Amino acid sequence: MARNPKDVILIAVLGVTGAGKTTFISKATGRTDLKIGHGLSSCTQDISVAHLEMQGKKIALIDTPGFDDTNKTDAEVLGLIATYMADTYAQDMLLSGIILLQPINTNRVQGSERKRTRLFEKVCGPGAFSKVIIATTMWSDLQSQSTGSQRVEERQNSKDFWGNMVNHGAKIVKHDNNPQSARKIINMVVSNAGKVVLQMQRELAQSDGQVSSTSAGRQLDSDLSETSSKLLAELQALQKESTGNMVSLREEIQELKEKLQHTENEKRTLKRSRASLEGPAAWISALAGVTSLAMVPLACVIL
Ligand SMILES: Nc1nc2c(ncn2[C@@H]2O[C@H](COP(=O)(O)OP(=O)(O)O)[C@@H](O)[C@H]2O)c(=O)[nH]1
Ligand SMILES: [Mg+2]
């Protein structure tokens, strides 16, 4: 493996929890020791790196925790992503591409997928869209392939989903969940020469690592505020309704209060989140393939 981290082609693999990121990396590298999620809970707790070589080139695939995680809030996930971005940018180690994995077996959950896509767009910025590959997964779970094709077309033609990215050069590709398919997708990144600075990397450098000052941070904050307002309105309506001691209403009110509290806590987490440069040595040597350790936990300092 290369000793100079700058010789390595870095590719970030992103997507919601359960999109198939770790499976994709495992198929591409032939590694069988990576933790793949088989239940409802997520497995990629932190960011990990797996290496492979293609046509004599050293490639590092960066596995990231996904939004919509079972154990982490989106604010925490964004903080982790910010940390590796700030670290690598500070070391002048730029990405060669971003692979966004997108399951196609479920119809889009109204709002949720749109929000995650928008957040992803804010992380990358329009200048990086030409280095994005949207790889659709879970085709074998579909009863008919035409349903999948129709879903792809819908998303591709909608500005709320992939339309904007595609108009700026993002590519859409079907991933067949086998090693050949994974390597073909990686090869698309490798042959699209050149490195890219993501919008969030530039913004973090300008804001001293303050996640909430970045476009993605501001987007998440506004999404959380919207959720908060909706919950509050629901809560107030229920409280008006509950004159008596109806148990079911009391329980519903309590549930709403807890959700509201969680959302407010997440907003606070986001506000305090700062990408740290803690431990860059371990991180950089892992990218270079010097350390045998695949998993390099990164800290996102919550002050
Ligand atoms: N049918 C199908 N299942 C997949 C595919 N990729 C991953 N899976 C399954 O989806 C689940 C979640 O995969 P995982 O790689 O842990 O997702 P991650 O959270 O994005 O890392 C596992 O049960 C995988 O076996 C795919 O392309 N097709
Ligand atoms: Mg994973």
Keywords:
two-stranded antiparallel ribbon, binds magnesium ion, 8 strands, 15% strand, 303 residues, 46% helix, 10 helices, single chain, 6-stranded mixed β-sheet, disordered C terminus, alpha/beta, Rossmann fold, binds guanosine-5'-diphosphate
Write the layout of secondary structure elements.
Layout: E1 9-14, H1 21-29, E2 48-54, E3 57-63, H2 74-90, E4 95-103, H3 112-124, E5 132-137, H4 145-156, H5 163-167, E6 171-174, H6 179-191, H7 199-206, H8 215-241, H9 247-272, E7 273-275, H10 280-288, E8 300-302
Parallel strand pairs: 1-3, 1-4, 4-5, 5-6
Antiparallel strand pairs: 2-3, 7-8
Helix pairs in contact: 1-6, 2-7, 2-9, 3-8, 8-9
The chain binds guanosine-5'-diphosphate (GDP) and magnesium ion.
What is this structure, in a nutshell?
This protein has 303 residues and is an alpha/beta fold.
Total DSSP E strands: 8
Tally of structural domains: 2
Assembly state: single chain
- Strand portion: 5-15%
Q: Which spans have pLDDT < 50 for at least 5 consecutive residues? A: 40-44, 292-303
Please compute the radius of gyration using only Cα atoms. 20 Å
Distinct compounds present: guanosine-5'-diphosphate, magnesium ion
Give the overall shape, derived from the CA principal axes: globular
Pfam families: MMR_HSR1
GO molecular function, one term: GTP binding
InterPro entries: GTP-bd, P-loop_NTPase
Protein name: p-loop containing nucleoside triphosphate hydrolase protein
